[in-house]
Amino acid sequence: MDCYKRLLASNQRWVAERMGAQPDYFARLNENQDPEYVWIGCSDSRVPAETVTGCQPGELFVHRNVANQVVHTDLNMLTVIFYAVQALRVRHIIVCGHYGCGGVKAAMSRQDFGLINRWLQNIKDCAERHQDELSALPDEEARSRRLIELNVVEQVDHLAKTSVIQRAWATEGRPWLHGWVYDMATGRLKELVLRTSTDLPHRVHRFEP
Ligand code: CO
User: Fold this and answer.
1) Residue pLDDT, tens place only, 151-206
2) Which residues does the annotation mark as catalytic?
3) How much is the pTM?
4) What CATH class has 35-205?
5) Range(s) for CATH 3.40.1050.10 in the chain?
């Protein structure tokens, strides 16, 4: 049970290291934040945003949930995006999925997970939309990997359907929207999609300027 103490001890060492390298390190970070990137990733413990991108404190504005979803009724996600785009004026938003995602695998199963079904429904809908492509793949592993990619692309497109993004695109041509996937087996990130201000969604999703 005492294992948690390792984290507190590690924090002490980390503070000492940072202060040793740069005495005003925390004082400067404490003044303000000016991140260029939003990271929307999965809650999975094996995909730590800063670690896999080599980013330092102050560089990434992070939102994580199960299976890196962008759900339009999720007030938490919308608040993150609104604040990051309007106030922090970020240049890039990265949606990052990962192969082996437990959330996507759960959505592919027919198991009843109770309340969690409602969250997984979004991924099931994505699977249904791409049923032809997925069912043509040779096995469950290939279908899982492809659905993980399709899910990322769909979440990027969900971002483009928000008025917050469309307004920033019209006035400032930012942020760029990126869809990436992380391979836990190799540690590598792969780019799947990039949407910029010329990639407006279907007309029915466009707001008046
Ligand atoms: Co996951």
Assistant:
1) 999 999 999 999 999 999 999 999 999 999 999 999 999 999 999 999 999 999 99
2) 42, 44, 46, 98, 101
3) 0.96
4) alpha beta
5) 35-205
